[in-house]
Amino acid sequence: MSYQAVRPDRRHWRNGLWWCVAVCAGLFSSAVAAHTIRFAPEKDYPPFVSAGPAGHVQGLSVDVLEILRPRLGGELQMLPPDNLANILDAARRGEVDLISSLRPTPERAEFLAFTEPYVKVPAVLVVKQGPAAPVLADLAGRSVAVGKGYAVETFVRTHYPQIRWVAVSDDMSGFQLLMRGEVDGVVADVASISDAKRHSGVRGVQVGETLPFEYALSFAYRKELTALGSALNTALQDISPATRQALLRRWIDVDTLTYEDPLHLWLRRAALGLTFLGVLLMLVWRARKPLLKDRHPRAD
């Protein structure tokens, strides 16, 4: 029997080699994909996250994420900025791994998990400027804008069904409708209206009332990415109070951080006024007491 008769066919070796290369390449691609974290930023939710004029994504939440990035255990891939409703739809389909500036809701909890909040701001009613700002109870049957898919949308539709709610893609769209007189109010967080008045030319509006709803904003991630959630929470806990305050003051003005409901402010001033009046009356009474004694001497 000759050597030629038992030599293996070289084609089988080549096919086997290419098969091994293909398998290894597939495993490598899967490993790379598993360590790529797809972050979906909102395009118009300042001061928390928005796309600037050149498309550069910026905001308070983006700065926080930059601090967390080295500890996430993977490469961060920035997806094109979009509105929240589209981002949530993509996350439900498994096309997004990480979202910022979100408040947990039962609907979102079906496919997302949430970190601890990293910023808290109240929701407010924004109305046209005037001598007497209305509250939501005054706007029954009238149009008020609210962000579509925002956590506050479910809250206001449930608790204020008498309002004609107009869903808008973002807060800025609502403010524009208000300035044009197409709606009678906008429900948004107080930081967003502050930023819009400072940087986006929103004029002639004011805060009408604070709603019993707080934006406790967190990072959201796909529920199955438990390691990512653990890394996010651990890194958030390690941000010092001084760093948190510096980030807040970079993106949110002092007036917003110390915002007080006009009704609460009036009540506080009234209480201070009554206290001052009480002290004044007590001082007057003490000053008059010796005079009364002199006017009515004792007959001992």
TrEMBL record:
Concerning InterPro entries, the annotation shows: Solute-binding_3/MltF_N (IPR001638)
Q: Ranges for the Solute-binding protein family 3/N-terminal domain?
A: 36-255
Q: Which UniProt keywords apply?
A: Membrane, Signal, Transmembrane, Transmembrane helix
Residue ranges of the TM segments: 266-285
**Gene3D superfamilies for the chain:** Periplasmic binding protein-like II (3.40.190.10)
- Positions the record marks as coiled coil are none
> What's this protein's name?
Transporter substrate-binding domain-containing protein
